[in-house]
Amino acid sequence: MPENLQYYRPRNRALTRRAFVSAGVCALISNPARADVNFAGKTINLIVGFPPGGGVDNGARLMARHLHRFLSGTPNIVIQNMPGAGGVIAGNYLFTKAARDGFTLGVPGRDWPLVPILNPSGARYNPLEFEYIGSTGEVNTFVWLRKNLGIANANEFKASPKQIIFGGLTPDTQPSMVAKILARNGYPIKVVSGYRGTAEIINAIESGEADAIATNAASFARRPDMVEKTQRLMQLLPSSETLPLTSQFVDEESRLLLKLTGYASATGMPLVAPPGAPAEFVGVYREAFAKMAIDPLFVVEAEKLGESHGVPISGDQIRAILQDTINAATPAVLETFRKLASLS
């Protein structure tokens, strides 16, 4: 994967935020919400690809609490958790079974759009055919270790005489893959995949069943006490944090693998509609999402939960990032990724 692959990550977040607000207001003035889409008395089903309690579920429920305020008629939004295979079960449902009437949306997860090219088994959808509504922003991934391990930095981590157990979801999703990429670079890591959600992994860290996790801060939304019991050692994307980048501690091939699994961080957690959803509904949802993402009430709650906010990503940008990532994934990189993903 070329080094110049762009994830549309803003260099100056303050300027980008102002630009987005200005562009969003202009778009809403020139393209007002369509009067023929009224949600009064209606219910929107929101399919969530992970069980309750984890980062994906928390983020989806945050959207559900606020999005309806920006839709005409303020409809009910009902969460339906459909966990399994790192979001693939929900993705399959949205692609093959969900109603195309405009009243079904989905938040399958973070990694699911790349599954058909990384590990096609079980995925029955084409990610480019979904209608992408938007994302509240990129979500950085950190490597978290239990503090009582006494490991304070990446060098101590690599030199640890104790094998560090990372909890993972499905073998090809980011929490598993970041740990596997570090392991192939000499870190004493054992990855235990198969947890249904990050909430389960965090509980496993608390009990001592696991030692570490590669995930975002929102995974700790329902367990803020566990933030104090863990130590962040590195981060996947550049940010205002002073933590070193994971890419500093791996070889060149591993950097390409990190870029591939980093798609899930670069696009955050997209809200989607099934393929073939009515265009007028998609347009209204996009407009409502753009308003929600910069609404002060939403921003305050997102900050409390550790969810991304302030620099949302449009549906068109999400699709462009996905297309670029697919185009740049060379056969050699994909083969290495698949072999690594197949390891338990």
Structure description:
This protein is of the alpha/beta class. It has 2 domains: 13-138 and 266-341, Bordetella uptake gene, domain 1 (D-Maltodextrin-Binding Protein, domain 2), CATH 3.40.190.150; 142-263, Periplasmic binding protein-like II (D-Maltodextrin-Binding Protein, domain 2, 3-Layer(aba) Sandwich), CATH 3.40.190.10. Helices cover 40% and strands 14% of the residues. The strands form 4 sheets. The chain has a 3-stranded parallel beta sheet with strand order 2-1-3, with helices on both faces. Strands 10-4-11 form a 3-stranded antiparallel beta sheet. Strand 6 (164-167), helix 6 (174-183) and strand 7 form a beta-alpha-beta unit. It is globular, with a radius of gyration of 20 Å. It starts with 12 loop residues before the first helix and ends with a helix. The model is unreliable at 1-35 (pLDDT under 50).
> Over all CA atoms, what is the radius of gyration?
20 Å
Number of alpha- plus pi-helical segments: 14
**CATH architecture term of the largest domain:** 3-Layer(aba) Sandwich
Mean pLDDT: 88
Count of individual beta strands: 11
Instruction: Write down the overall geometry.
Output: globular
Distance from N terminus to C terminus (CA atoms, Å) equals 25 Å
CATH superfamily of the largest domain: Bordetella uptake gene, domain 1
Low confidence ranges? 1-35
State the order of secondary-structure elements, H for helix, E for strand. HEHEHEHEEHEHEHEHEHHEHHEHH
Percentage beta strand = 5-15%
What characterizes the major β-sheet? Answer: 3 strands, parallel
CATH class of the largest domain: Alpha Beta
**Structural class by helix and strand composition:** alpha/beta
Oligomer: single chain
CATH fold annotation of the largest domain: D-Maltodextrin-Binding Protein, domain 2
Into how many domains do the coordinates divide? Answer: 2
Relative helix content: 40-55%
